[in-house]
Amino acid sequence: VATSQPRLVLVFSGKRKSGKDYVTDLIHERLGPEVCCVLRLSGPLKQQYAQEHALDLDQLLGPGPYKERYRADMIRWGESRRRQDPGFFCCLATRGARQPVWVVSDARRSSDLQWFRSEFPRQTQTVRVRSSENTRRQRGWSFTAGVDDAESECGLDSGVDFDWILTNEADAPSLEEQLRPILRLAVQAADNQ
Ligand SMILES: Nc1ncnc2c1ncn2[C@@H]1O[C@H](COP(=O)(O)OP(=O)(O)O)[C@@H](O)[C@H]1O
Ligand SMILES: C[C@@](O)(CCOP(=O)(O)OP(=O)(O)O)CC(=O)O
Q1: Binding site membership: which residues?
Q2: For residue 90, is it within any domain?
Q3: Looking at residue 3, what is its pLDDT?
Q4: Which long-range contacts (CB under 8 A, 24 or more apart) does 167-174 make?
Q5: Is the predicted ipTM greater than 0.85, yes or no?
Q6: Which strands make up the sheet holding 101-104, listed edge to edge?
Q7: Ligand nearest to the CA of 166
Q8: Domain of 151: which CATH number?
Q9: How far, in Å, CA of 124 to CA of 102, rounded?
Q10: 60-115 pLDDT, tens per residue?
Q11: Which residue owns the Cα nearest ligand 2 atom 10?
């Protein structure tokens, strides 16, 4: 079986409720499912966690309040896994992806970026999604100790030179406009196959 390599890997990060899922869904819609897949590092994490704790996986994957009830414990659970193997969830999340453009929606730690940069050094580009605390609050965020002050939320706050920064705010240029150069890059990457 030929192993297919991605042509472009867009690795997204941002605080919770900054709009990572929203923006990456938008990219997926624009490029279509043949060209692009959205990969969530939290996917295999939530799957395994739901199984071990008899929880509702669909609700854990959704944007509602359900996942917030379990977040602190999921973080702890995931961290013990990552201590054994920092690339554990990266590897699981990318397994079987065949599209030329990969959109990773939720990098949180420098070990996540390191994994993609070392596996796909030429293809990887990092994207930061930014929103003000006010905007995030309107989307349902409130500060939670053990979550918002932990590595899960703060691991990429400094020391990273992002290739792209998107401002997901009502008074910023439209996402459409901000995404244009990234979408152009993705279309080029897919066309050059
Ligand atoms: N530009 C936007 N316009 C409208 N709703 C948005 C926008 N960005 C985010 N949202 C909404 O805000 C909530 C949080 O966004 P989400 O993408 O789930 O954030 P994250 O994945 O970073 O936690 C969701 O309900 C989402 O639909
Ligand atoms: C335990 C987590 O994987 C939970 C992630 O859930 P989501 O990826 O749904 O989070 P947001 O989009 O920021 O709201 C966090 C981690 O530290 O791995």
Answers
A1: 15-21, 139, 168, 178
A2: yes
A3: 55
A4: 167/130, 167/131, 168/14, 168/18, 168/19, 168/22, 168/23, 168/129, 168/130, 168/131, 168/135, 169/130, 169/131, 169/132, 169/135, 170/135
A5: yes
A6: 36-39, 101-104, 8-14, 124-130, 164-167
A7: 1
A8: 3.40.50.300
A9: 9
A10: 999 889 999 999 999 999 999 999 999 999 999 999 999 999 999 999 999 999 99
A11: 16
Could you tell me if residue 2 is inside a domain? no
Ligand 1 contact via 139 beta carbon (within 6 Å): yes
Q: Which residues line the pocket of ligand 2, CB cutoff 6 A?
A: 16, 20-21, 42, 45, 67, 71, 74-75, 78, 106, 108, 152
Q: Which ligand is nearest to the CA of 59?
A: 2
Q: Is 26 in the pocket of ligand 1 (CB under 6 A)?
A: no
- Strand ranges for 6-118 from DSSP E: 8-14, 36-39, 101-104
- CB of residue 19 inside a 6 A radius of ligand 1: yes
Question: CA-based Rg of the chain, rounded to a whole angstrom?
Answer: 16
Instruction: Read off the tokens for 168.
Output: 């997901």
DSSP helix/strand/coil, 154:
helix
3 lies in some domain: no
- Measured CA angle at 112 (ends 76, 140), to 5 deg: 60
Interatomic CA distance for residues 9 and 125, integer angstroms: 6
Ligand 2 centroid distance, CA of 113 (Å): 16
> Looking at this protein, which amino acid is placed at residue 174?
S
Domains of the chain: total: 1
Residue 187, both tokens: 């279309």
Q: Domain of 140? A: 8-191
Supply the pLDDT for residue 1: 47
